[in-house]
Amino acid sequence: MIPSEQNLEELQAYLDDQLTPDQRAALDQRLANDPVLVEVLDALHADRADRAALWRSLEPNESQIQHLIDSIDQRIRRESVWQKRASALRWVSAAAASVLLGLGIGWFAHQASAPGPTHDSHWLAKTPTSVQEVGTGPGGGSVVRSTGDARSLPHIQNTGPANMVSPAETGGEIRVALTDESGNVLAVQPFDSIERARAFTNDLQQWQQRQRQAQDGALRLVGDRF
Amino acid sequence: MNGPPDKLDPTIALFEQAVQDHSRRLLTIARAIVGYRASPEDVVQQALLNLYRHRHRYDWREPGGLMRRTVVNEALRILRTPRMVMMAEDHPGNGDEPADPIVRDETVQAVRSAIDKLPEHFRAALVLCEYENMSYNEIAQALNCSVPQVKTWLFRARTRLAEMLRGYVDGKRKRKD
Fold first, then answer.
1. Domain residue limits at B55
2. Which of A94, A210, B57, B128 places its Cα 20 to 30 Å from the Cα of A5?
3. Cβ separation of A57 and B161 shorter than 8 Å?
């Protein structure tokens, strides 16, 4: 007789100890009156015993267990070391990033505070990309005519003695070139009228003259008399 | 187990003790589930390493269920990943064995071969039920499925095994008679 699926399930649950006390008692009663059911239960029990032998054969021996534990220990240690290294690396990276950030901020701050070209700076001039000499000024400097784009020049206040030049008219804009003793153009000061350019050159000539006199000792301060 | 460097962490001592206490059963479960398809030792190592990494999340006072569940899930995960690894059969049995080692080995090999042909969830349910003596409810939790699903897997696993081993069992009985 082939047992029904329900009977098989119930018998398996019986062997798995998964029946309630009432279900178990009912099945025990049926088993007592049904030898075929007992035969099926015995077969299931035998199959289970064979599998139990397999499970036992799969159990590791002591040396295998110790090997496993040692391997786990090693992997954990290795991971701990790498975690510490990674943590240290993170600190170093953060420090390096902070230093770089500080340097960057400092550089930008320095750039922002450094004197740069401004439109109202009297001494800041524009230089042409090509300079054509058209004459020599009274201080030996050049009067130039400019063409092309203009670029910023360094501040003229710190460039030492500059030669005075006469103004030149270049296409509606008056430009006065300031040159050093070697004739190098240090700055070009633009003016909107020839009168302003002349006033500028005169002022500069007078200033240079006073500078020379002061250097030669020809000028005396009022306070020197006392 | 010598333990990792950070001895100030109390969970480490609990973890070490749990590994000492449960390694034998965990390795057996892994062997039953993965068979020759992967290294059971690697499965247990990886599962326990995962637990160690997140050890602060768990309660280590009763770690048996947690470790079993983790090993089962890791074994199933490994089996879902296609690999070309054939493991050597080096799992000697221990104690409480049939008197005749030839018969014992023959039976074990036949059963093992049959179990190896079952789907992995059937194997997992079977080993947790029959080796670990877990209830259907516990197995359902470990395998993240319902209790009826567990019952179905167990019933089908046993039925298929009986079919696969029918010839061998009949022959054994005849030899006995």
1. 1-91
2. B128
3. no
